[in-house]
Amino acid sequence: MAVLELRAVTKRFGAIQALSGISLHLAPGEILGLMGDNGAGKSTLVKIISGNFRPSAGDLLIDGRPVEFDNPRQAREQGVEVVYQDLALCDNLSAAANVFLGRELMRRLGPLRVLDYGAMYARAAELFAELKSETRPHDLVRRMSGGQRQAVAIARTRLSDPKIVLMDEPTAAISVRQVAEVLDLIRRLRDRGIAVVLISHRMPDVFAVCDRIAVLRRGCLVADKPAAASSPEEVTGLITGAIEQAA
């Protein structure tokens, strides 16, 4: 059974049609590369899946059950997590504090409830070990590389035991070594049965980790096929319109 299914999802903003009848599915432990030029509809589609927008038409199903999200919290409760391009990290805080930001663990101290730093640092260490990241819970984010920052953002998604992680341009503006580190982190999610939607403009990264590739052009789905059955040349043609529809 698909962990995520979109059926004829359409989104309009007044007279502007951002998405037209998008149908996609995603299996547990599958990595889907979502590609398209700026304005193709990628961000709109991700915002629908993550609860920021409601579709104008069409259905969204998780584990075969229709769902409707009014906000991102409801999407998170259904197992949908997002790693945004800006990562939304606080540079002045530690890795562990960023992992638990907004979801802090508490303990009783007499009549008071106080932050349980010990439990948060221990759990953060477990998450970084699962991801095989060199990031340490006490490290300050402002001193981290791009790859380590991604590890913090990905570890944060693991707190809720997600079914689906949406990743927006995770390898943009980082070094080659850090790109390899981030791609390994994505594989770790897949190995734990988590479905990943990777939004990226970087063709080598998509073909390195993705099982399937979906291409949007002007709000329409023009390709949804196994990565092994496509090529960077075909995807480039689909994005630019040189190729109308995938073979």
UniProtKB/TrEMBL annotation:
<dbReference type="GO" id="GO:0005524">
    <property type="term" value="F:ATP binding"/>
</dbReference>
<keyword id="KW-0067">ATP-binding</keyword>
<dbReference type="InterPro" id="IPR027417">
    <property type="entry name" value="P-loop_NTPase"/>
</dbReference>
<protein>
    <submittedName>
        <fullName>ATP-binding cassette domain-containing protein</fullName>
    </submittedName>
</protein>
<dbReference type="Pfam" id="PF00005">
    <property type="entry name" value="ABC_tran"/>
</dbReference>
<keyword id="KW-0547">Nucleotide-binding</keyword>
<dbReference type="InterPro" id="IPR003593">
    <property type="entry name" value="AAA+_ATPase"/>
</dbReference>
<feature type="domain" description="ABC transporter">
    <location>
        <begin position="4"/>
        <end position="243"/>
    </location>
</feature>
<dbReference type="InterPro" id="IPR050107">
    <property type="entry name" value="ABC_carbohydrate_import_ATPase"/>
</dbReference>
<dbReference type="InterPro" id="IPR003439">
    <property type="entry name" value="ABC_transporter-like_ATP-bd"/>
</dbReference>
